[in-house]
Inverse folding.
């Protein structure tokens, strides 16, 4: 019984493309369906022909699971379901289901409208794709079909991110997606119970880093914002609609309150409003602290942060503005950027990764003269800063998760194999499990030993332990019984009971073996010799000399006859039933060794 | 502070060693086996001379790691080789490791340099040099000091035995001169070309209660006459002495640091000179702080010295509520950035900090 998986991951940097295919006990599940952000052509989509050369994907795949809404985990979903063709169920958590279509549409608009791409999925495709989505709750066991079930666990990282357990019979796999083991301002830490999966698939992007503490990052961020505002400058923070934006809002709000600052903070309208709306809806997905404060005061309703109006950008004086989109490639954030770029008192803080080709990427690479539409050159004099608050598990976090789940095998994705030898050894040493690190496109087979539970009948147990030598804790004892497989259950019963249940008649098997012994004396003397010999050796057994001249050892019969041709040889007939096979064979080999010379 | 970065290791370290290519090494010293030796690449922002503030790469990267069965109390890289040497309880033998960062990220155990183990031997202090050949100077006691060639494990030199005091530190002043510091504060010089002589250098002011001492020597300043650099010694009671090795009959300077009375802190006593700031000395190991002093204002009166800066970050550890406040286990200076220090504490935290020079007026 094996577990096979193959995957087509990203190019080993910060943002790759996740798409893993797992084959478990005959079921095929696709985990995540990501888009590669670095490519502009077909390379950004995973190669689905890996899965099956011909034949429909719907027949081959039992389900698709999406761990969270980040583009590199679900960006290729509409392409996959509508353009390549898949009609089966797609599972994700409720927040992910709510947020995905918005972000997909946003991405589609940018790619098609701004960049003029043609081979891309349409709005209708997004809608059709989302119709196939089944939303799941945390810790809810979902039956995909009779044998396959899945369960979602909280993963931290972003709103709605989950780790999934996939179970078929007694074999299971846990896929982590992206997760975080330390709680942050608005999300809790990932958690899983001791589910002991056969395989744990964990991301390892940050496995070799030792993270700078959050406090220091935040301190530096606040310092920069404060300095700019103090000297009358304006701070632009382009954000993705959801994710870090909320965290930064909470951070600034707290800081403004503590330092009693007066400069206005604005939140651009549109997507970000919807985002806050979703956070409020899914308040149960945030961490304990937020939920507690929500009762007293809604953490997502800010005292110092107001809605933005386009006209405000021209207001004199300091201010901080959060605007979408995050890479400065279009929309409001780009508009504001153009207005403020020429003043060196201003600052733009990029909160995350920027795709190549966007203004965000260009200014982060150091470009200070940008060509805009209509061949206008924009000179960037404002300060450009970068800050990353990304929340992934580091080596310590990975070890923690393994400790919680207790898998039998571990598989790490998103790392470079050469550089992961140390972590592999660390995991193998500490947990005594095998650790795999497949390369791009590689298939890994993991053998599992499924346990098949069998019930043994009490009567059989009692009987088997009663005969023969006493049970010894150190020696395995061989027991005989009949295995009955009926109605999806396995039972070990005595043969008689089995016969009765099955309505069969018992057949008796008897073996007889001839052992030749050199002994010129009379038969009954030979018998006596044999009897004394066996009596001396088999002290734990019942050895009897019967009046008819035969010997019994337990229920085995030994008789002696003279050899027809040779008077000096006696033939011992050793006879036993099938049940006494062990003892019978033992006796036979014992007798074959011959009788000791000195016997009366 | 100009800059402060805090990190957390999975297990606390009591050493921070610089390696080739601006790498930094830390290692665990726990009692159970499975201590890790980690060679780290500091984030780019800490390597450049200019402070960058917000930067994409702010994290340490584990470049390679190894597993040690015994706690690692001391670690030294062997210059010009890909080897490093470690030592730790229960005895004074040394472990030799190979670092081959290009092929794999595992630091492999290569060999052991055994030493004869007398009774009551603790772990060996080590120093390395590769001027003539890769050598390691090691010993746990004054009468057990020797130099061993790392690759062949052959003994090259054995110091003439005198007392059996425990050593708290040893160093190569140059390829022929050794400096040994005993826990009692006694400093000894030895010339390896004359194996029989062990010159007793400076003693320390005697104290009513027993105290432990450790020394700090100038960190490999090239081209300068090594014996012209003063040697600093700090005691567990906070006494600081500076000695010029050319004039060992008197103290160059004597001062007292304002530190809490020694509790359990003596194990991690540490002092070191700033490589890029003349006369600046740092001490740690008394509590959760690191003190930086400007020794140029000191004289031989022995009065209390005012530190230029105190780093208190470790005392406010994030691992709150455990009762014991963390103890700084080790500190070291950045080799290029003049005011940057690395410090580690018993709760696993590692701080990298850059302090602001206070102005003269305030």
């Amino acid at each position: 019984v094996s577990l096979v998986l193959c995957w087509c991951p990203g190019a080993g940097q910060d943002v790759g493309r996740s798409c893993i295919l797992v084959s478990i006990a005959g079921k095929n599940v696709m985990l995540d369906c990501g888009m590669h952000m670095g490519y502009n052509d077909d390379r950004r989509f995973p190669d689905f022909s890996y899965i099956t050369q011909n034949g429909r994907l719907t027949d081959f795949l039992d389900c698709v699971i999406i761990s969270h809404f980040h583009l590199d985990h679900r960006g290729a979903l509409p392409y996959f379901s509508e353009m390549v063709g898949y009609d089966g169920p797609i599972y994700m958590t409720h927040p992910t289901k709510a947020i995905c279509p918005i972000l997909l549409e946003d991405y589609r608009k940018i790619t098609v409208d701004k960049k003029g791409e043609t081979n891309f999925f349409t709005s209708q495709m997004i809608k059709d794709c989302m119709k196939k989505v089944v939303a799941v709750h945390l810790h809810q066991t979902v039956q995909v079909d009779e044998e396959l079930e899945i369960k979602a666990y909280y993963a931290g990282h972003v709103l709605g991110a989950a780790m999934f357990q996939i179970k078929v019979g007694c074999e299971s796999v846990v896929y982590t997606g992206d997760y975080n083991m330390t709680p942050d301002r608005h999300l809790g830490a990932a958690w899983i119970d001791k589910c002991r999966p056969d395989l744990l698939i964990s991301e390892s992007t940050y496995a070799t880093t030792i993270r700078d503490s959050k406090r220091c990052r935040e301190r530096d961020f606040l310092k920069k914002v404060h300095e700019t505002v103090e000297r009358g400058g304006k701070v632009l923070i382009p954000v993705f609609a959801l994710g870090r934006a909320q965290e930064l809002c909470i951070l600034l709000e707290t800081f403004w309150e503590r330092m009693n600052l007066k400069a206005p903070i604005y939140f651009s309208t549109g997507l970000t409003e919807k985002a806050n709306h979703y956070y409020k809806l899914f308040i149960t997905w945030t961490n304990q602290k937020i939920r507690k404060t929500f009762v007293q005061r809604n953490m997502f309703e800010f005292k110092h942060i107001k809605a933005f109006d386009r006209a405000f950008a021209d207001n004199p004086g300091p201010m901080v503005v959060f605007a979408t989109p995050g890479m400065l490639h279009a929309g409001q954030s780009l508009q504001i950027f153009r207005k403020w770029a020429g003043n060196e008192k201003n600052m733009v803080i990029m909160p995350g990764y920027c795709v190549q080709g966007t203004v965000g990427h260009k200014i982060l690479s150091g470009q200070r003269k940008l060509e805009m539409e209509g061949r206008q050159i924009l000179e960037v004099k404002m300060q450009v800063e970068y800050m990353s608050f990304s929340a992934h598990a580091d080596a310590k976090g990975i070890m923690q998760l393994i400790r919680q789940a207790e898998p039998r095998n571990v598989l790490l994705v998103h790392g470079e194999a050469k550089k992961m030898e140390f972590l592999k050894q660390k995991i193998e040493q500490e947990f005594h499990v095998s650790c795999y690190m497949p390369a791009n496109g590689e298939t890994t087979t993991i053998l599992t030993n499924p346990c098949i539970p069998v019930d043994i009948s009490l009567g059989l147990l009692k009987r088997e332990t009663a005969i023969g030598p006493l049970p010894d804790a150190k020696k395995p004892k061989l027991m005989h019984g009949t295995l009955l497989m009926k109605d999806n259950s396995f039972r070990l019963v005595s043969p008689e009971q089995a016969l009765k249940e099955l309505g069969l008649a018992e057949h008796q098997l008897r073996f007889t073996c001839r052992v030749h012994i050199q002994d010129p004396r009379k038969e009954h003397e030979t018998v006596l010799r044999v009897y004394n010999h066996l009596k001396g050796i088999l002290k734990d057994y019942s050895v009897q000399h019967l009046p008819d001249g035969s010997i019994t050892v337990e229920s085995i019969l030994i008789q002696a006859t003279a050899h027809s041709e040779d008077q000096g040889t006696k033939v011992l007939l050793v006879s036993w039933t099938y049940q006494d096979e062990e003892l019978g064979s033992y006796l036979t080999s014992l007798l074959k060794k011959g009788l000791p010379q000195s016997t009366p | 502070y100009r800059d402060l970065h805090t990190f957390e290791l999975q297990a606390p370290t009591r050493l921070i060693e610089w390696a080739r290519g601006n790498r930094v090494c830390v290692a665990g010293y726990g009692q159970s086996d499975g201590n890790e030796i980690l060679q780290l690449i500091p984030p780019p922002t800490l390597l450049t001379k200019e402070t960058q503030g917000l930067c994409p790469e702010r994290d340490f990267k584990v470049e390679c790691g190894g597993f040690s069965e015994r706690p690692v109390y001391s670690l030294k890289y062997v210059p010009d080789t890909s080897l490093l040497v470690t030592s730790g309880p229960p005895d004074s033998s040394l472990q030799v490791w190979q670092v081959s960062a290009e092929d794999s990220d595992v630091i492999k155990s290569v060999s052991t340099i055994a030493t004869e183990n007398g009774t009551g031997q603790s772990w060996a202090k080590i120093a390395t040099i590769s001027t003539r050949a890769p050598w390691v100077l090691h010993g746990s006691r004054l009468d057990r000091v020797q130099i061993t060639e790392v690759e062949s494990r052959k003994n090259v030199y054995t110091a003439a035995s005198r007392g059996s005091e425990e050593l708290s530190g040893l160093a190569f002043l140059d390829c022929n001169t050794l400096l040994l510091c005993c826990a009692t504060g006694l400093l000894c010089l030895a010339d390896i070309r004359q194996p029989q002589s062990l010159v007793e250098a400076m003693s320390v002011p005697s104290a009513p209660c027993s105290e432990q001492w450790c020394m700090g020597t100038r960190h490999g300043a090239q081209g300068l006459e090594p014996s012209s650099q003063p040697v600093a010694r700090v005691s567990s009671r906070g006494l600081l002495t500076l000695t010029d090795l050319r004039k060992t009959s008197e103290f160059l300077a004597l001062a007292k640091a304002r530190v809490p009375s020694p509790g359990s802190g003596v194990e991690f006593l540490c002092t070191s000179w700033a490589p890029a700031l003349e006369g600046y000395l740092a001490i740690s190991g008394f509590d959760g702080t690191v003190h930086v002093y400007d020794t140029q204002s000191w004289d031989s009166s022995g009065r209390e010295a005012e530190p230029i800066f105190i780093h208190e970050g470790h005392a406010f550890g994030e691992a709150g509520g455990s009762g014991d406040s963390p103890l700084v286990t080790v500190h070291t200076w950045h080799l290029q950035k003049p005011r940057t220090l690395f410090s580690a504490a018993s709760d696993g935290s590692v701080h990298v900090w850059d302090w602001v020079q206070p102005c003269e007026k305030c």
Remarks:
- The mean pLDDT of chain A is 79.
- The longest strand of chain A covers residues 510-518.
- The longest helix of chain A spans residues 94-114.
